[in-house]
């Protein structure tokens, strides 16, 4: 589920421009080669992704749309967060799905290097060129070959809050990290812990770090650290960890304290704020939080729940970190034709619109009508990505070798969980991160 290279240019592509971006000007060609009746009737295509719960339910609606259009049955398999290991085992064990929704560019690159991926067809590439900004095609390209079509994206720089909690504390949404700490203390003083942190899922902690680091250290250093051109023991890393320790080090600001945060999953962290018995006033994570609120929790995004952009740190620009899942076709799959047809369908505004209406989803498809989004809050999240232009960065840990940035209980996930448990020595944590990164990049 870890959901995010530089998202450049006009990302008109997050479906916010109007007629200049194509609006809802869907044509027969936009619908891709999957259009045209029940030509895949009797065939089955298998799909693997990280999604569970409400995200799985919403993706199933998209798959049902594919079935209605083509006649093909779709069997879905959830890998859980340990995507690379689970999918790799299936491939090597002869139980490969036909299509996989890869959540990390590092995994996409690794799988391409192992020869596991089928290059996307000219039809898929043509549809992507019509419907996507070029940068999203770049994200799915390895050594000049187009392997991955980005279907679902996310704005991972949104801090969600209960309007009632901030009102009770007498504070407004902050614009700087220092203001956010002050607001958190005010919420805590009003009788409710400020932040629910899903520390049991280590990927949430990498997202915290990346937002602080991007704003504080800047895009150039962010890119260098992503490529391991500067070590994780660099002073910029120590500084970002020190900044994070200002929040993690105040036990009263966290629901359940640090111990409780380490036992809290991402879904539970959202429920702690927007459930029936609130245990905190705010939770940081991506726009997909809205899908949990409106789905599992039955809340109303925009009323019961709002968000503010992740605030700037030490005078740097407010960070915008993005994520996403790319559809790839596996060579070891049993139905190559249906696999490519499904990916072609996912490149259409029709497919994107199904999940957009359900909530908890952003699309890079330029032909998707903004009215398709479930609420104004999601439109705002999409606009944030667009307005950031070439300052947007793809999630750093998703780009690193999976052994470092994408495996539960290992590498960055585990080290940052240890840091949450005891944030008193940022320099020592940075040294541990560098040791793990050096090993993973070398491997």
From TrEMBL:
Residues 1-22 form the signal peptide. Keywords: Signal, Transport. The keyword Transport applies. InterPro entries: Bact_solute-bd_prot1, SBP. It holds the Pfam family SBP_bac_1. Belongs to the bacterial solute-binding protein 1 family. This is Alpha-glucoside transport system substrate-binding protein.
